Amino acid sequence: MWRNTMRFAAVLCRHLPPQMNPQNLTASLKKMILESAVKFSRPARTIAWSRALCSAPKDYGVPNPSWSAEMMSLYERYSAKGAESWERLPSYKRYLTYSAGGQCLSRLHKPTARLFTRNLEEEGAGFEYTVFANKAERRAVCLFQAGPLLEGPPGHVHGGAIATIIDSATGICATYLTGFVMTANLNINYRNPIPLGSVVLVECELDRTEGRKTFVSCRITSADGSKLHAEATALFVSVSVGTLIGF
Ligand SMILES: CCCCC/C=C\C/C=C\C/C=C\C/C=C\CCCC(=O)SCCNC(=O)CCNC(=O)[C@H](O)C(C)(C)COP(=O)(O)OP(=O)(O)OC[C@H]1O[C@@H](n2cnc3c(N)ncnc32)[C@H](O)[C@@H]1OP(=O)(O)O
Q1: What family does the Swiss-Prot or TrEMBL record give for this protein (predicted)?
Q2: Interface TM-score (ipTM) > 0.90
């Protein structure tokens, strides 16, 4: 079984086109999966293979028991804003999953890799967050509850963890509004430390686009908006999905 899996993966990797886009990825992957599964396993096993490779991904952006009452209250407030064009974006453990067919690919391309912000199994230990976006207003808001494993200064969140959540929230905002991007530049002013365990709002706004460049600004405030924790600006550059995946 293991040898078959490796041969199957090798065939897939050999046939992956150098430049893929979300439109043709599903079709190419389905074709390759079927062809290689038929080649390397008995036909009766083909369906099981496809199922094992393409099961539905887990969405980490929904409440779990570690979410505090404050996090839940914000989640419910933004969910209720649906009528005002706020949409909750799903959150997976790999960015590959955002491409059509990417769930299959993630089982084959560096299968042990995991998104930095979703790499802990223990709920509440690290980054707990969910993102809502508003297309018409070109904004996104990330509700972020910082777990104890993100400590920097005693009792407070590490500056690198704050940079990570800013990069992620602004990147999701840019991707949602303009398509696949990579961070080219990130500037942060840290204004007030974030206490571990607290819930903050990471509010992002698309300022402008120039060709392939998307400029996003960001503010992190306490949940009630009274305290400013950080301000940032980020530049994202549009890339093809092939570049993003690294093929
Ligand atoms: C399809 C929609 C799906 C909807 C999805 C819904 C929800 C979304 C959910 C999830 C989304 C998934 C992902 C979220 C995204 C991101 C989050 C994390 C992102 C990262 O964590 S990512 C890792 C860190 N990131 C890197 O590892 C990048 C390393 N880097 C490079 O890979 C290249 O450097 C690159 C690609 C950036 C550019 O390279 P390139 O060759 O493609 O383009 P080039 O260099 O020509 O630059 C083009 C124009 O940008 C200007 N420019 C470039 N860099 C600049 C800089 N630093 N400062 C000022 N201007 C700059 C140039 O001056 C030129 O400007 P001009 O056109 O005016 O001349």
Answers
A1: Belongs to the THEM4/THEM5 thioesterase family.
A2: yes
